[in-house]
Amino acid sequence: MTQATQKPLCIINARVPDYQDLQRISVNHEGLIEKISPMSTVVTGCESLLDVGGDWISLGGVDLQINGALGLAFPDLKAENADILPKISQFLWDAGVDGFLPTLVTTSVENIQRSLAIIADILPTQKVGAKILGVHLEGPFLNYQKRGAHPAEYLLPLTIDQVKRVLGDYAHIVKVITLAPELDTTGEVIPYLRSLGIIVSLGHSQATAAQAKAAFNQGATMVTHAFNAMPPLHHREPGLLGAAIIDSDVMCGFIADGEHVTPTMLQILLRASHQAQGLFLVSDALAPLGLPDGVYPWDSRQIEVKNGTARLADGTLSGTTLPLLVGVQNLVKWGVCDLESAIALATNAPRQAINLPGIISSPTANLLRWHKDESTKQLIWQRLFS
């Protein structure tokens, strides 16, 4: 996915998240970004110029929680449908996403192992589209009372033995695991997962602030879909989310579809987190991502998708079918945060959450160009190099 150039290039008059004023982006002959410097700085060696006229330039999005697309739920991966994964990667690339974590929600251990095996086989062969960066296991170590749409029959106790059973031979491809920390009575599971290099995210949990703080001290560094499937913020018991917001080492994912969390509460979250520090956007998109509204199978049940929101027959909210960058557009449209912060929440922040490198040394093929359409006030993006 490297955009090779004929000669060194400078992209000038660019606005770049986390950089002040207009910038010059220096690109080498291999299509990799070498340096970002203010326009006032004298730079030599650029043999061609691309003037973007003050538009924002960023890397593409990284989606750390996406459950499926194009009709495939990742826990349903089988040998006979594995050929859909490259199509999903290309679909996400076309939707502005550079990389993603296929997310396996709670299901049987057999299903988890089968899906992990297929993803492990595909990982070394990736050549086009958004890159699979590892796997996110959302369950099965979740609190029954906060399971949401996760099937109760597949929830498991949180012990090292059960964790080993679920991971099997595939711990090396699991990047993130969501769990309810209060289920671990020994305090040993999170340190064990961290010893394997797996990032621990707290979610689908009834944890108190004290229990969450203990989990953060043990090595948990993320929170899964802030506000959803956890106790609400309360002035006497701030709970898991309250403990996370004040911990500078913890990052919280959140969904910006307008259904999972209202724009007002998102604005409160961003203000409490120092204007987006410690937050990142996720899509939480389900298998019907890329398909029209309608009724679709979901494990042994069905979900109904209306206006991009998916619910079970009993009305339980189960996810969205909105692409990640629609969340960026929503944040700007709702006035929740400024344009720079909104872009960073889907591009820089998720990379930070899983320790990926930033824009320096990245291929120019991964760059997005953003501007606000003055007639419609809509935030528009496109790949800078298609």
Short description:
The protein is of the alpha/beta class and 386 residues long. The protein has helices spanning 84-94, 109-122, 160-167, 189-195, 209-218, 239-245, 263-272, 324-333, 339-346, 348-353; strands at residues 9-14, 23-27, 33-38, 48-51, 56-59, 61-66, 68-69, 72-73, 97-105, 131-132, 135-138, 174-179, 199-202, 222-223, 251-255, 279-282, 294-298, 301-306, 309-312, 317-320, 367-372, 379-383. The strands form five sheets. Strands 6, 9, 10, 11, 12, 13, 14, 15 and 16 form a nine-stranded parallel sheet that branches. The protein has a four-stranded mixed sheet with strand order 3-2-1-4, with no helix packed on it.
Description:
- By secondary structure, the chain is of the alpha/beta class.
- The protein folds into two domains: 9-54 and 361-383; 59-353, TIM Barrel, CATH 3.20.20.140.
- Helices cover 24% and strands 26% of the residues.
- It has ten helices and 22 strands.
- Strands 6, 9, 10, 11, 12, 13, 14, 15 and 16 form a nine-stranded parallel sheet that branches.
- α5 packs across α6 and α8 (324-333) runs antiparallel to α9 (339-346).
- The protein is globular, with a radius of gyration of 21 Å.
- The termini are close together.
- The model has no long low-confidence stretch (mean pLDDT 93).
